[in-house]
């Protein structure tokens, strides 16, 4: 039974590690882009009156809400599969 | 103090004391006292997390920072918000599954020993106290400014209230005070934001234009770079903000107050929504302060900018709204310090008294008595400290807390949960090196060593205001070195597997199985 459980955990990890990388990348790109490309970030973006710097900063909010929701959905699937595995393995 | 203020304050004090009375009748077991026996729903706990997290520094400080520095002030809030993703993805569920009441429980579920518990308890205790004292000092100044009452009386009122909540009502009272605070804070800032918008006929561009006219920065107000000139400082602060929350004991403790991991996730979903929306509104309030009040008026009243929100309230709603916003600020402070008192209490009475001194054998009644006396002691001692520190600037300790947490608790938690070869020695060296490095960097840094009014009037040895970028790697490095020099302590694959399955699924050890 341990092996099947471990395999499930490995699958969950394979899903979550890329997401975690995206989180750090998306977050740290904001300060880094402000440090290295200030001129570009201060240009007007495609939204009227909003510069890229503001647009990127605002995008962090829906990004957080989306990533939290995504984790919730994945974790629910994982919990269900785990429940099934335990049921099957029980004598 | 006029009658409006008085009524608002009495109303809040009476409401929270009624909650405490109701909670006191229910806090009759240790499980109830420390974690409200996991009885909160996800949404309630999410509100309590937001109430625990949004300090007066967020509410008053960020509005002021945006009003003075524009764009860069807003970046602070982004870091605070994204840190919840780190909590959720890395530590939330394992912490809930492994721990009972404290972070010490979590780490000791893998490395059970008194040494480990001492260090975790000391870390949690130090972080909570370091965070609590500046909040108390700031609250004293705030109430003095807003209500014209003496500094010592304000500190004694807030210190007394937080002690009463925790001593009598434990976690149940603390949680509900925090929930009430979130409701009051969110509705107040929402109301104030609506008033700001309505003053500009709901026309955002005209608000922006007005801001540009009234700030000395002009167009540049909306461009980055006014607060963080030095790229290293900037990056270092962002790093500490995003990793810090996952090491704050008073926030992680709130993951024990729900029933299961589904509710843990629900808590974090609701808290990120509340905190995110709150920071959007602080942006509106910051812009509104400049547009309706003007930079000069703000600075003339308070050069730090901390009074931006109350001044804005007075400008648009007169004395009544000012009284309301002051009451919100007051609730904000008591809710946060109560959360800190209970986390310091748990570290002492659960980890040190019950597990170490009594070897886990004290009775339910003894534990409860110890917890209440500890809470009383902590409340008294920190109030006394805050009274003595009136003349010393301690506000920098608030941002320091995030650095200390990110350099000590965060590495240990992540490595304990995920690294197979991690050893107890590694956990101890990591914790100690993270704590020592971050505190030492602060002492040798410009907050304390400053020819211009610092505690030590000399040039700073390490001239960096936000030493997270040095301290956090030192915490990880300490843990790594401790681990490779203690290979003998390494756990067998079987042992780690058992722990890992428990942390990831909650399936408890099956030692007896063939």
TrEMBL record, chain A:
Membrane spanning residue stretches: 20-40, 52-72
Organism ancestry: Bacteria, Bacillati, Bacillota, Bacilli, Bacillales
Protein name, per record: DUF485 domain-containing protein
Organism this protein belongs to: Ornithinibacillus bavariensis
Membrane recorded as keyword: yes
Key word Transmembrane present: yes
Signal peptide span: none
Pfam family, one: DUF485
Keywords: Membrane, Transmembrane, Transmembrane helix
Domain of life: Bacteria
């Amino acid at each position: 039974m341990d092996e099947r459980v471990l395999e499930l955990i490995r699958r969950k990890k394979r899903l979550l590690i890329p997401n975690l990388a995206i989180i750090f990348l998306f977050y740290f790109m904001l300060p880094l882009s402000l440090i290295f490309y200030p001129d570009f970030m201060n240009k007007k973006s495609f939204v009227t009156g909003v510069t890229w710097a503001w647009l990127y900063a605002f995008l962090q909010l829906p990004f957080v809400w989306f990533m939290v929701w995504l984790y919730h959905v994945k974790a629910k699937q994982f919990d269900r599969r785990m429940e099934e595995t335990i049921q099957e393995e029980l004598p | 103090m006029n009658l409006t203020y008085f009524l608002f304050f009495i109303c809040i004090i009476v409401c929270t004391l009624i909650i405490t009375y109701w909670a006191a009748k229910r806090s009759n077991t240790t499980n109830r006292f420390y974690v409200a026996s996991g009885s909160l729903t996800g949404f309630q706990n999410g509100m309590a997390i937001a109430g625990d997290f949004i300090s007066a520094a967020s509410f008053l400080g960020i509005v002021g920072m945006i009003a003075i520095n524009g764009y860069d002030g807003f970046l602070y809030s982004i870091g605070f918000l994204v840190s919840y993703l780190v909590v959720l993805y890395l530590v939330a569920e394992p912490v809930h599954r492994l721990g009972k009441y404290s972070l010490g429980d979590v780490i000791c579920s893998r490395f059970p020993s008194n040494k480990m518990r001492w260090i975790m308890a000391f870390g949690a205790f130090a972080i909570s106290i370091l965070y609590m004292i500046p909040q108390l000092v700031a609250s004293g100044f705030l109430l003095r400014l807003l209500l014209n009452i003496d500094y010592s009386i304000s500190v004694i009122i807030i210190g007394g209230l937080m002690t009463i909540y925790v001593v009598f009502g434990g976690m149940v009272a603390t949680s509900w005070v925090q929930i009430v605070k979130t409701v009051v804070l969110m509705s107040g800032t929402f109301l104030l934001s609506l008033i700001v918008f309505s003053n500009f006929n709901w026309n955002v561009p005209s608000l922006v234009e007005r801001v540009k006219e009234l700030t000395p920065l002009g167009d540049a107000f909306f461009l980055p770079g006014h607060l963080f000139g030095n790229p290293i400082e900037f990056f270092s602060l962002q790093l500490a903000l995003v990793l810090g929350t996952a090491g704050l004991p008073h926030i992680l403790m709130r993951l024990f107050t729900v029933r299961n991991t589904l509710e843990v996730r629900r808590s974090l979903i609701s808290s990120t929504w509340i905190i995110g929306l709150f920071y959007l509104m602080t942006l509106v309030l910051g812009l509104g302060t400049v547009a309706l009040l003007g930079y000069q008026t703000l600075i003339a009243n308070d050069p730090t900018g901390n009074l931006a929100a109350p001044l804005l309230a007075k400008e648009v709603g007169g004395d009544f709204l000012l009284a309301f916003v002051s009451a919100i600020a007051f609730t904000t402070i008591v809710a946060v310090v109560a959360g800190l008192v209970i986390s310091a209490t748990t570290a002492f009475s659960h980890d040190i008294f019950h597990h170490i001194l009594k070897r886990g054998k004290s009775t339910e009644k003894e534990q409860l008595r110890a917890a209440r006396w500890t809470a009383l002691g902590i409340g008294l001692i920190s109030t006394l400290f805050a009274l003595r520190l009136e003349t010393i600037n301690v506000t920098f300790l608030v941002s320091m807390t995030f650095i200390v947490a990110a350099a000590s608790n965060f590495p240990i938690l992540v490595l304990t949960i995920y690294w197979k070869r991690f050893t107890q020695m590694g956990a101890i060296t990591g914790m100690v090196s993270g704590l020592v490095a971050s505190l030492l960097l602060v002492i040798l840094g410009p907050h304390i060593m400053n020819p211009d009014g610092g505690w030590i009037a000399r040039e700073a040895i390490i001239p960096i205001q936000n030493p997270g970028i040095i301290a956090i790697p030192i915490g990880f490095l300490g843990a790594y070195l401790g681990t490779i020099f203690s290979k003998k302590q390494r756990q067998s694959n079987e042992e780690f597997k058992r722990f890992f399955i428990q942390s990831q699924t909650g399936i408890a050890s099956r030692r007896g199985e063939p």
